[in-house]
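Hi U.,

Before I forget, here's the chain from the pilot set. I'm dumping it here mostly so it's searchable later in email.
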Amino acid sequence: MAVKKTAVLVLDCAEPEELAEFYAALLGGTAGPGGDPDLIEVSDGQGIRVAIHRDNGYAPPSWPRPQDAQQAHLRILVARGDIDEAEREAVGLGARPVDTTDNSGSRDTRTYSDPAGHSFTLTVSAGPQAPG
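Structure:
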């Protein structure tokens, strides 16, 4: 029998309080202590969990440069009709678009960097609605 597990994606940065507030606002959740003085967890109470960890030597990823291939990113699912509003919300909170090569027509996946430089995408959910 498999041991029941849960997982949380942990992002490193120099200022975890600020980045935790960014993700709490973006994901509609709350930020709180993560059981370690240098760790803050963000949760929406419905299954989304992200943790932000203080790394005093943090240097932002340099993606999308080819020599530094992307290692991981958050994929945030939204309903098709909400993608433009989700983009406005993310940018209003401090996200920076990093993939603006084709801004004409519908784009189902849009790539950004958070205030600490981690990449994430807003992606149209494959189903009729985004989860939640």
